[in-house]
Sequence to fold (834 residues):
Amino acid sequence: MSVEAPAPRHIRLTSHAGGYGALPIQWGAATPAERGPVVGTTTQRSHRNVIGTHSGSYSVYRALAVAAGALSRQHKADLTNTAPTDEIGPYPQWSDPGRIVSLDPWGAVVSQAFAAELAAGYDIRPTIAVTKAHVVLPEVIDALQKGRLRADGRILTEGGAAMVTKAAIEPVWWLPGVADRFGCTEADLRRVLFEETGGMYPELVTRSDLEVFLPPIGGQTVYIFGNPRDLANPDVELTARVHDECNGSDVFGSDICTCRPYLTHAIEECIQGAQRGGVGLVSYSRKEGRALGEVTKFLVYNARKRQAGGDTADQYFARTECVAGVQDMRFQELMPDVLHWLGVRRIHRLVSMSNMKYDAIAGSGIEIGRRVNIPDELIPADARVEMNAKMAAGYFSPGPAPDASELKNTRGRRLEP
Amino acid sequence: MSVEAPAPRHIRLTSHAGGYGALPIQWGAATPAERGPVVGTTTQRSHRNVIGTHSGSYSVYRALAVAAGALSRQHKADLTNTAPTDEIGPYPQWSDPGRIVSLDPWGAVVSQAFAAELAAGYDIRPTIAVTKAHVVLPEVIDALQKGRLRADGRILTEGGAAMVTKAAIEPVWWLPGVADRFGCTEADLRRVLFEETGGMYPELVTRSDLEVFLPPIGGQTVYIFGNPRDLANPDVELTARVHDECNGSDVFGSDICTCRPYLTHAIEECIQGAQRGGVGLVSYSRKEGRALGEVTKFLVYNARKRQAGGDTADQYFARTECVAGVQDMRFQELMPDVLHWLGVRRIHRLVSMSNMKYDAIAGSGIEIGRRVNIPDELIPADARVEMNAKMAAGYFSPGPAPDASELKNTRGRRLEP
Fold:
């Protein structure tokens, strides 16, 4: 199946005699009228034009709410006053065939884009929400106190609050395009998604007419420092990090990895970039433990720290592969979609050392200027194992990569003190 | 269907002529041999004795790995050196009927508990992993510098690292027991879980013989300060917080709520408690935005901040209900299970103001001594709206709850500066 957008089809508001039917989705069409809304409602089954439903894995909690009698299954969201605080797009990328396959670019503006369908009784829910926030990070306050950052009342307050626009984005997968990204056929993708999840959503294999899947997985959140419209202007300096969730470090500050230090360093870079007239972007994806989940991650920690010879950089990837079967399950292939949703064409400063992220972004047609890595003094001692292993594996670093003997000698703490 | 454990059945290692078959699960049995392993493998379908598969929602990424040709579908985890760093249980609660229904108490020790079945070729995976970590939080370093905390080299280092034991736990639902918690029949629970997720896992309704479900949702992580065995000793002072994920605050420090301040305050209390001979516990559940997900949460933020009269405490719950249909979808009914897995019988200091959490814990038979709320100086100005709304709604507070006029006058920032 091709990832080219098919020829326009007209919306049929009443596809079945005697009532409303499911509206067609023509993925990648240039206008919402041609594209059609994503309808994942559970209240009126005949309206559904997707596999799965809204809110990712939280649909399971929604079900519990109905089971407990706390939520009416007929509830429709009252979307009064919920519209985005900032206009994002539309950008040419939204209808560039195959450029966006894992989110709905019109997902933030369903109230306006699909007003007619909403008025006709379709339960259309936003899959993206855009709001404003003041974010206060202790590391930013520290940078302010040490003079690395300065308050300007626009991007950063005296109290250390960074003023951001942020967006939460649920996954919306157009299966032909997702299959194309992973280099397999759509039929294979559907079969494997069904079989390897233990039989989730048989419609994946029985309903090839439904091309859109709302998978029960975590989505992503973007934090924008400066004017969101500037993200689409290649002449405005863009500092960006695409960050994958690591709860143990991001929230609890575990010293075995550099996740939170990288994130807060990127935020500092984003603030500085925005203050010198640029714009900053942090995209945060729910892909805990390289998308292996935290149980597997902790099993790997134990295997690393107990192996003969101790936790050395030269065995770093091998231990993950023994337990998980792969070194990494994050698959950055879908990650650039959010950048195209924001209209990004050029990233001037990419705060990341990951070659997988770099290749995915560059391969999707976004120009990348400099790569900015984490300063040495922010790397916890125990995280040296991970850093050196990654550098030797070809991750970006401004200096030389460690050699075999250095990898053997880069050793983390053992489990017992 | 009753939640009492049925009479013991014997393990049948070969239930089908000509090959191994699925092993029975007798939920709540006193020994692993009687209970039987949870087999959610996708490599040998005839061995499966559950609905769903491992790793929660990350099974979708596992499927992508297979689709991309990166992972062999026959891969079995090599569990060498992955065993828990600390022994948890077994405790009497593990076989107290109906006490634990949403996790597998034997999930951390499958290698030992089900050695015979593993040797017989069953692919049995841990659903719990236990490891050690050093966690370094800026707020803890600040408390150390200000003299509120002191380093002792045992619980807290000079550098501000707290030494913890931590466990990641995947959900394993015994459906008869889950239904009982929510006061509905098992048949209703199964039907609603199927229908309200848009048709996820038809086995929920077609395979009533499979009583265990591995739902594709986030699990939880526990952080233990001090000796994990002390959690089960009601004479050792236990300081505890059960925290629900809020990425915007926990990671990014958004000032609209008190999530991270509450969490870091609890960690400070846990460290102090452990240092005076007690033990501390933080349980972190992946229930973003009251288990409504982040898109809904951000929609509610906009509705709150744009409503006529501004973002006032008296409208706080109403705005969530308009958008989501409920005020809260977290359902603390399953939350105490993790406490029973840890053997907890008494919490001396519960760091929380939530009545829902308090009621769920106390209702599950755990004694609660004092409740500890967040100090006023840690509440961000914009989060006053949430705090006052909660206090007026009956959440715990040592002082008087705000009256109607105070609620009307507790006002947050508007969207436009």
